[in-house]
UniProtKB/TrEMBL annotation:
<comment type="similarity">
    <text>Belongs to the methylmalonyl-CoA epimerase family.</text>
</comment>
<keyword id="KW-0413">Isomerase</keyword>
<dbReference type="GO" id="GO:0004493">
    <property type="term" value="F:methylmalonyl-CoA epimerase activity"/>
</dbReference>
<keyword id="KW-0479">Metal-binding</keyword>
<dbReference type="Pfam" id="PF13669">
    <property type="entry name" value="Glyoxalase_4"/>
</dbReference>
<dbReference type="InterPro" id="IPR017515">
    <property type="entry name" value="MeMalonyl-CoA_epimerase"/>
</dbReference>
<dbReference type="GO" id="GO:0046872">
    <property type="term" value="F:metal ion binding"/>
</dbReference>
<dbReference type="InterPro" id="IPR029068">
    <property type="entry name" value="Glyas_Bleomycin-R_OHBP_Dase"/>
</dbReference>
<dbReference type="GO" id="GO:0046491">
    <property type="term" value="P:L-methylmalonyl-CoA metabolic process"/>
</dbReference>
<feature type="domain" description="VOC">
    <location>
        <begin position="4"/>
        <end position="138"/>
    </location>
</feature>
<dbReference type="InterPro" id="IPR051785">
    <property type="entry name" value="MMCE/EMCE_epimerase"/>
</dbReference>
<dbReference type="InterPro" id="IPR037523">
    <property type="entry name" value="VOC_core"/>
</dbReference>
<protein>
    <submittedName>
        <fullName>Methylmalonyl-CoA epimerase</fullName>
        <ecNumber>5.1.99.1</ecNumber>
    </submittedName>
</protein>
Length: 142
């Protein structure tokens, strides 16, 4: 079962400049930063609301590590902006199976590593009204 909007992923060319924009403009602050080699990104999570014990909603700023990363390709095609919407779930495997059972395609056969050590999967944007959709099971924040 989907429990919340976990985050909105935003592709950016310069992570530090994007962080500065969101801090200056909205007063958001960085909650977590990491490099995800598997996804080919440097990322920062900025908490919009919630608390450390769960239920938070974030902006995820994503800068490509290299020209072959999916975020680099997205930036090349679309420029900076919203890349995906992510929904939190207590069980990413069961949620993926339930959704794919309706005819929506998942991008991965098995969940992959995400932010905070979460398990993630993506749903194909062509099956989700043009929106790349991520499912997130976070051991830290569920």
């Amino acid at each position: 079962m989907i429990t919340r909007v976990d985050h909105i992923g935003i592709a950016c060319r310069d992570l530090a400049a994007s962080i500065a924009f969101y801090e200056r403009t909205y007063g958001f602050s960085v909650f977590h930063q990491e490099v995800n080699e598997q996804q080919g990104v440097k990322e920062a999570m900025l908490r919009i609301n919630g608390t450390d014990d769960g239920g938070s909603t974030y902006l995820q700023l994503l800068e490509p590590l290299h020209a072959e990363s999916p975020i680099a390709k997205f930036l090349e095609r679309n420029g900076e902006g919203v890349h995906h919407v992510a929904f939190g779930t207590a069980d990413v495997v069961a949620e993926t199976e339930a959704i794919t059972g309706t005819g929506v395609r998942a991008l991965y056969e098995q969940p992959r590593h995400g932010t905070f050590g979460s398990s993630i999967n993506f749903l194909h944007p062509k099956d989700c009204q043009g929106i790349l959709t991520e499912l997130v099971q976070s051991p830290v924040h569920e």
